[in-house]
Amino acid sequence: MFSGIIKSTGKVESVESLGSNKILWVSSDLSSSLSIDQSIAHDGVCLTVTELNSHSHKVEVVMETLKKTTIDQWKPGSVINLEKAISPLTLLDGHLVQGHADTILICIKITDLAGSWRMDFNLPSAFSGFIIPQGSVCINGVSLTVADLDETSFSVAVIPYTFNHTSFKYLREGNPVNVEFDMIGKYIVRQMELRSITE
After folding, report:
1. Same domain, 53 and 111
2. Domain tally for the chain?
3. Alpha helices of 73-168 — where are they, by DSSP H?
4. Termini Cα distance of the chain
5. Contact 98, 183 (CB under 8 A)
6. Distance CA 65, CA 1 (A)
7. N or C: which end of the chain has fewer CB within 10 A?
8. Which domain holds residue 168?
9. Domain co-membership, 155 together with 188
10. Rounded-to-integer distance, Cα 1 and Cα 138, Å
């Protein structure tokens, strides 16, 4: 479990195909403090550390994860957000994030507001029930608050600290992002769907 509070970024050093899987080496300030079998969120995607050296760590990504995330588009040099798993004693500054991306969305507009940034993303109808104004959403591993919402898109406000300390400073209009919708909201929608079936 994660909180969506990013304290480190990493750089993809290498990408290798192994059957239908991909093997990635990622260098970061966090790598030297990690351990084998540890779960780390990579741009919001929970992956298991399988090998380490002094400055980088290795993860293996299976086909199912590749289909639902942007990882298949990563290449050497890509900068990604990293977060260690939280503990029961962790101060929850963001919101509860599982590290299980629901889908890939597209950044359709970035507006520099001279002190913050507004970022707009498309919203397919299949996911419209998972998001509410002023609710939480996780984008590339970052916990954010929904600023505006309409039938086909939503926006978030990004403060300077978040912009400068995450991969958001490299995000451009047209880029894909990993999105995990609020876990509690998804459970509520699921229960309502099941209730409508049984009634």
Report:
1. no
2. 2
3. 160-165
4. 34
5. yes
6. 17
7. C
8. 103-198
9. yes
10. 13
Q: Decide: residue 196, CB within 10 A, 0-12 exposed, 13-18 middle, 19+ buried.
A: exposed
Q: What is the pTM of this model?
A: 0.91
Residue 123 has which token pair?
A: 């919203």
Q: Would you give the DSSP letter of residue 97?
A: B
| 18 and 77 both lie in a single domain | yes
Same domain as 149, residue 66: no
CATH number of the domain that 163 lies in?
A: 2.40.30.20
Same domain, 28 and 64: yes
Q: What percent of the chain has pLDDT over 70?
A: 97
Residue 92 corresponds to which amino acid?
A: L
pLDDT of 70-107, one tens digit each? 999 999 999 999 999 987 767 677 788 999 999 999 99
Buried-state track 156-186, b at ≥16 Cβ within 10 A, e below 16: bbbeeebbeebbbeebeeeebbbbbbbbebb
Q: Give CA–CA dist 194/196, Å, rounded.
A: 5
pLDDT computed for residue 87 by the predictor: 76
CA pair distance 126, 119, nearest whole angstrom: 21
**What length does the chain have?**
199
